[in-house]
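// run 5 | inverse folding | seed 20
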């Protein structure tokens, strides 16, 4: 497959790292994020390095906005045949403190937003007879996590949904896989640490068999591989990039 395919990424630090890896492989990159200035700066940085990249402000829970953005991406860069979704939010709340509003918001962003980002690209992938879908889920959906029933449920939904994509879309040459990270040193993790929701990243990292927390590049490298032709026989899989923390 040509490396001129367009990539749409729910941005953030994981998304930005993934965008860099995919741009380095020759892909055009469209980055989406709620932080308009941040996503434009990330796209500009890639452009300054000679890559084709553009940034769009978008909330993945807003389907109407996503439909407009995808239309703009097609006009500017071409059909969308790779989708790597890393947009997501987390919250730490005891079961009895999870309000309907908190539950619905987590599901709307993490699960429904992921579905919409993928669904909107599927027609382009089917037309091309080729596609790559990589979702970022979470090991909390595999092991469970206290005070995160809503988050774990949303990410468990992403895992099941990704497997469903893999089954349904395989006849069209489309693969779908998910990466469920454990401990990754990101701003979201640092904020959780600062709030006292989790122990320090250094302490958590020391518990990982490989002796450190993951980095965005660790996740991005695996994502870029799954988006390549070298991964053409891998679909419906959970690719654990976790230093051995969850086996």
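// decoded
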């Amino acid at each position: 497959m040509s490396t001129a395919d367009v990539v749409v990424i729910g941005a953030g630090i994981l998304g930005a790292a993934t965008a860099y890896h995919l741009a380095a492989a020759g892909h055009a990159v469209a980055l989406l994020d709620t932080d308009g200035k941040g996503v434009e700066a990330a796209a500009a940085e890639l452009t300054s390095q000679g890559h084709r990249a553009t940034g769009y402000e978008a909330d993945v829970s807003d389907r109407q906005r996503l439909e407009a953005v995808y239309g703009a991406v097609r006009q500017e860069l071409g059909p969308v045949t790779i989708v790597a979704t890393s947009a997501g939010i987390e919250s730490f709340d005891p079961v009895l403190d999870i309000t309907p509003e908190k539950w619905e918001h987590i599901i709307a962003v993490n699960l429904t937003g992921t579905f919409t980002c993928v669904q909107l690209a599927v027609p382009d992938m089917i037309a091309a007879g080729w596609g790559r879908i990589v979702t970022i889920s979470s090991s909390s959906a595999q092991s469970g996590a206290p005070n995160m029933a809503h988050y774990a449920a949303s990410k468990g939904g992403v895992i099941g949904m990704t497997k469903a994509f893999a089954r349904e879309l395989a006849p069209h040459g489309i693969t779908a896989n998910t990466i469920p990270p454990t401990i990754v040193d990101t701003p979201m993790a640092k904020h959780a640490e600062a709030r006292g929701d989790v122990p320090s990243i250094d302490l958590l990292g020391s518990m990982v068999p490989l002796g450190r927390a993951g980095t965005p590049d660790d996740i991005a490298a695996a994502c870029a591989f799954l988006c390549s032709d070298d991964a053409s026989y891998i679909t419906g899989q959970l690719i654990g990039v976790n230093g051995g923390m969850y086996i």
